[in-house]
Each structure stands twice: as C-alpha cells, then as structure tokens.
Specification:
Number of helices: 4
Structural class: mainly alpha
Oligomer: single chain
Radius of gyration: 17 Å
Strand content: under 5%
Mean pLDDT: 89
Helix content: over 70%
Distance between the termini: 50 Å
C-alpha cells in the first residue's frame, strides 16, 4: 500500500468513526428518553443489563493492553453518566 492509499484509508476510517459516534449519541439519547417512560423496576433491569455489558473482567484487565483498557474504562464512565440520567 503506498502512502497516498494509506492516507485515503485513514481519512475513510476517520469518517466512519465520526459517523459511528453520531449514531451512538443518537441511540444513547433515545435510550435515555425511552427509559424515562419505564417503571422503576424496569429501569433497574435495564441498568443492571448496562452494567453487565460494560463490565471489564479481571482477565481482560490482566491481558489487555493499556490503550484498549483506557478505551473500555472511558466507555464505562460514559455508561455511568447514562445510568445517572436514567435513574
């Protein structure tokens, strides 16, 4: 792959990341809005599911590289903010 092709690939990937970020933001806002219509018990179930999905296991921490763990930790912090908005 030559330098120009690599540059185009990086630009394309960056555009995809931006699109995914926008989609994620919209889905998070929708999730928060929809959760506001749920009962307390239903909210608790959704919140438990979110915590399980975003849990980082000890094994992942032991074998994961620092950059990947930093990304997972950031995702977990974002989820905690969502939980606060849902509760």
């Amino acid at each position: 792959m030559n330098e120009h092709e690599l540059h185009q690939l990086v630009l394309s990937l960056n555009q995809q990341v931006e699109n995914n970020a926008i989609q994620s933001l919209v889905m998070r806002n929708l999730l928060i809005t929809l959760c506001n219509t749920l009962t307390t018990a239903q909210k608790q179930q959704v919140m438990a599911q979110m915590r399980t999905i975003h849990q980082i296991s000890d094994r992942e921490r032991a074998v994961g590289d620092r950059q990947q763990l930093a990304i997972l930790d950031a995702s977990r912090r974002e989820m905690e903010v969502m939980l606060h908005l849902i509760a």
